[in-house]
Input
Amino acid sequence: MAHPDLDGPDAGAPDTACPTPGPWAFGNPTRVVFGIDSLARLPELVRGRSTVIVTFPEARSIGLTERLKALLGPTLLEIITDTQANPDVAELARLHDDFHARHAACALLVAVGGGSVIDTAKALAVTAPREPDADAPGHFAHLAKHLAIGTVFAPARAIPLIAVPTTAGTGSEVTGWATVWDRQAGRKYSLALAETWPEAALIDPTLALTLPVGPTLSSGLDALSHALESIWNANHNPVSDALAVSAAQQVMAVLPPLMKDTGNLSLRTGMSQAAVMAGLAFSNTRTALAHSISYPMTLEHGLPHGLACSFSLPLVLELAIGASPSRDRVLETIFGAPLASAPERLRAFIEGLGLSTRFSDHGVGPEAQRRMIADALQGVRGLNFLGRRKP
Ligand SMILES: [Fe+2]
Output
């Protein structure tokens, strides 16, 4: 499906089998340590530093906090468990100020959880410089001001972070971004600093073995969305493409059987590997239109992130096909050629997992859908879609 707004630099590029590559760069400062039972390697990564762990409330009842205490021993200062899904500035302010007031000696944060926990830890890891009207050290209000206007700042304090994901999909363990919500203002912010990249991602697929079906689906589809969004993206490069193709193929092979056999360690391992590859891909490209559409779907319609950023993938694929020969070639390696039937096959794949791909089924009527897509194309992520903004 052609779209009048899609006329980026890739459009009309020569369709040769071996195009001359343009200049590109790929980098990621996070060391990835992957393996079954690799949680046991946490002390090796912590290296005796005074550590605060940030995790999810249920970590106590499933015995995870006891395991972490036993692993880190006296280097562990505290385990913070009162985190919330989709962290909001109001809640983060309390957590952030309390953490910095009590833990001046903390030399390392370890986030053990899904994307929300890792993003919470990233927000705890930095403080903004005090402004003249400051009334308390490390006051979150200063950080919130930067979040609201999207400025990059040199942190007054920056604590290194190790991310240990317990889901497979968010990719937050290998990116420098934290999504922070302001429900009162109806806005979504992105914390993005050099200091918020994890120094290491420790990925142990056994940690996802007890993940319920709902978060397994949501995080798995988030990974698929990250892979595809890095392909139809102005910032694509050969390395991100290679990672994204592998990741997308693996999610599409592994997620359906995993949904029927959530305790299968081999399938969990496949999903964890696909998720980190997708994360590495979009760590260099950022996301695009499907994620831009997802933010109002989460904020206004309460759809979990992974579902909100994937239900529209067939529609976005329709828009992407034919807009760029180089992108079509990469998409063909996932969906096969010709691409004409690919959106229908992707729709069948997603609906086969129980997620409707229709806006109306998520409470969005035709006029609201049209407006939402138009707004999303103008959003920061929407402008990444197919080179609508130069890298
Ligand atoms: Fe995402």
User: Anything to note?
Assistant: The longest strand covers residues 108-113. Residues 222, 225-226, 291, 305, 309 surround fe (ii) ion (CB under 6 Å).
